[in-house]
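Progress narrative, Year 2. Work on Putative NagC family transcriptional regulator from Arthrobacter globiformis advanced from sequence curation to structure prediction during this period.
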Amino acid sequence: MSEMTAATPQLLRRVSAGAVLDFMRASGAVTVTDVIQATGLTRATAISVCEDLMQRGWITELENQRAFGGYQKGRPARRFELNERAGYVLGMDVGFSKATVVVSDLRGKALGRASQPFEIEDISAEERVAVIDRAALMALYSVGASPDAVLAVCAGIAAPVDRKGNVLAAQHFWGLFDVGLKSALDKLHGWTVLLENDANLAALGDRWRGAATGVDDVVVILASERFGSGVIEDGRLLHGSGGGAGELAYLDLVEGVGDTFGIATLARVWAADALEGTAETSLREHAASGAEAEHVFAAAAAGDAEALKILDRLADRMARVIGSVATMVNPELVVIGGAVANSAGVLLEPIAARLPEFTATPPRVAVSPLGDSIVTVGAVRRALDYVETNTLDLELNIPA
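Result:
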């Protein structure tokens, strides 16, 4: 009983500090009165907590200014705000051919970005880590941030990752991403690294700042080169027992689909098939270098008959994919994400028209506005979640 009593003031102090920080993260400059109204703390406690958080570097006190420059009786109210540069988080998108890293402040504002390619396919784990680290340092240096100021890192990879951050290396391709990134970056910089599947991060990112904002039941499908999906059910990201929730390998068995190739890949392959024929098409302008997805969409927009046929095939394929997902998961919304989403809006109407053929529970369908940043946006959100949960246990490295 005595131990419980002794711990109570510390616990209350911690809860109070957490409540103040949560309020300041959602606000701009606030006064002590604002803090009291939002948290229910007494004035003495609110002031004490603010001063403690300020001393630790998490918030700053602003200069007092008289309202509208006019006369104001008494001392002006003290104003505080979150120190959004108290530290930084890194969001990483680690693909097969390159690594992209985004530096964000504590409000989730992207400050810098860098990408580095993996020059060869059979790169070793050590070399892959070196490329990722180089991209991270380039991104940090681009904004003048020190590696010591990084509070958390989240890396999205194209492999299943379980709730504990372990990679499910059950296939050769997945195993390529099991490179010991967490321990390597901890050893190099002392960073806390969170691993997550890239499609799961896409779901988190789009729900935070994309088409799925405010939607609790959503599936986000990365649809560029290959299909992968992240599933959020009742506001909670699903992983499955080994991290395989949302994996779409079963599409090999779906009639009219038969593989996991995405929109960009299919558009490229089907455009090549069209160019082997004799039909007139503006896609022949790209025959030498190969027509890419953006060329197909542009040609279709100009009324090219062959390109329009490809778009019709893409819409049918996407309707079957989304129909199978909707039948199993029953989301309110399915979001098409990835770089191809910038062009895929023209597919929404024909997809919606076909969906009732393939599922009894057709969802709304949208394209993400986040483009090829969708994974890094989700990675930043995941890293921020870690910082916000563990704020009071983190030590800031802020110059005096």
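Residues 1-5, 66-71 have pLDDT under 50 and may be disordered. The chain has three domains: 2-82, 88-198+376-393, 211-369.
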